[in-house]
Amino acid sequence: MSQTREEKSMPDITTGHYPYAEKHGVIRNMPTEGRPRDEILAELEEIADAENQFWREGRVSGTMYCGDMDHYGFVGEAYRMFLHVNTIQRDICPSATRFEGEIIAMTLDMLHADAAGPECVPAGAVTAGGTESILSSVLAHREHARAVRGIANGQVILPTSAHSAFRKACHLFGLEEVVAPVDAETFQVDVDFVADHISDRTVMLVGSATNYGHGVIDPVEALSDLAGERGVGLHVDGCLGGFILPWGEELGFPVVMPDFRLPGVTAVSADTHKFAFGPKGTSTLSFRDKSLRNQLYFLDQGWSGGKYFSPGLAGSRSGGLLAGTWAAMVSLGRAGYLEKANAIFETSYAMQDVVKSHDELRVLGDPSYLFAFNSDALNVYHVNDAMAERGWRFNGLQHPDAIHMCVTLPQTLPGVVETFADHLAEAVAYARAQGDQPARSQAIYGGVPPELNEFVVDAISSILDAQADVPAS
Fold first, then answer.
1. Structure pTM?
2. pLDDT of 325-368, one tens digit each?
3. Which domains does the chain have, with CATH numbers?
């Protein structure tokens, strides 16, 4: 299908507003007749194979956490058997109850829920991703604070480095966000600020393990003491690190997973679709006690469709995702996770050593599997530009400007660290030569193609302008 002149002026081919338009056209209306299945599958296979080539050399930060196509095939088979299952229909498909219960049990075991105390009954939920886990935790803490402490207008204290999903949750659930600064050197939350701002309206505190930007673990032990003393909740955001830090700790690397061994921790999020190597669209939310978990249940007894009861934010959920996640965890077990975590930590520290070998670059904070770096001597986004030309995809950060690398299994392949060293040396030389020239890349979450940066920035500007025009209530 050919494009109009107007469409040609926009980013094209595979990365713009109309990916694959030149070869496969653009569907603008429901087709009158369906296409043959073999033709559709051939097209999908061609696209998938092309996109898989991008990360297979180990040059993509995060995103593809496993990279083992045999593992993906195995998980996909488990998913296929239950892809048609809606977990609402537990009478027809009781397997969903088994899969979900055992995913939660394995996660609670990993997070030392046995240390929660004899008065606690640990519980959990499987969600569609880290954002839903965070939203659910904030909602549960809000509802619990309303019911137990009578707080009608609560607040959440979170580090400026905390994931944006916490701010989204405050926005959606009518909570005030109190944003705590982080230390300029360690990038950990300022515990003194948190202590000074806890009030009788505080619903929960937030600590990251690790934070997304810098791969740093907040001083959760100190936050736990505060939470216990002041009678407030404490959520540990382990969406990124929750399924690798426990194994790193067990292996003896200089990391500790802040979990239910700390008495003030009331909830922990950990994404199974990251370092648990499950299918995309799954996460876990663990609670110290079921009294918090119960706040997520919703019951409507008066609906004409029957008594409606849901265990969380979502209604319909995929039985295939539960089956695939369960299969991934059971197939790997502790031994498999330990083996993979060891390779990831060793590779990350080796890559950090490469960065430290350049006087112009500085690793930020005290990272582990994920590390960020910036520079006072040159524009670090020029480094990013040069690495992108060599096939690397880092994540851009801001406040301060930096880039980060989340090490996953593809980086542990032979030769990747050596290639990283060669390319980084070339990138530093390139950045040095650019001087004050503007860089092409910048800090936009989610891997926006450089040619779309201007569109994204314009869209953000439009949203901010529209918000500025809304009169204050």
1. 0.90
2. 999 999 999 999 999 999 999 999 999 999 999 999 999 999 99
3. 5-63 (no CATH), 95-328 (3.40.640.10), 334-457 (3.90.1150.10)
| 206 neighbors 160 (Cβ within 8 angstroms) | no
For residue 367, which phi and psi values (nearest 5 degrees)?
Answer: -85, 180
Please tell me whether residue 63 adopts helix, strand or coil conformation: coil
Residues 6+ apart with CB under 8 A from 276: 243, 270, 325, 328, 329, 337
- Cα torsion 425, 431, 432, 433 to 10°: value is 110
Tokens at 341, concatenated: 């975590």
Q: In what order do the strands lie in the sheet with 267-270?
A: 123-127, 283-287, 267-270, 233-237, 202-208, 155-159, 176-180
Q: What's the CA gap between 326 and 244, in Å, rounded?
A: 17
How is residue 471 annotated by DSSP? P
Residue 268's H or E segment, with its range, is: strand 267-270
The DSSP secondary-structure symbol of 200 reads T
Q: Is 236 exposed, middle or buried (0-12, 13-18, 19+ CB in 10 A)?
A: buried
Residue 190 burial (CB count, 10 A): 17
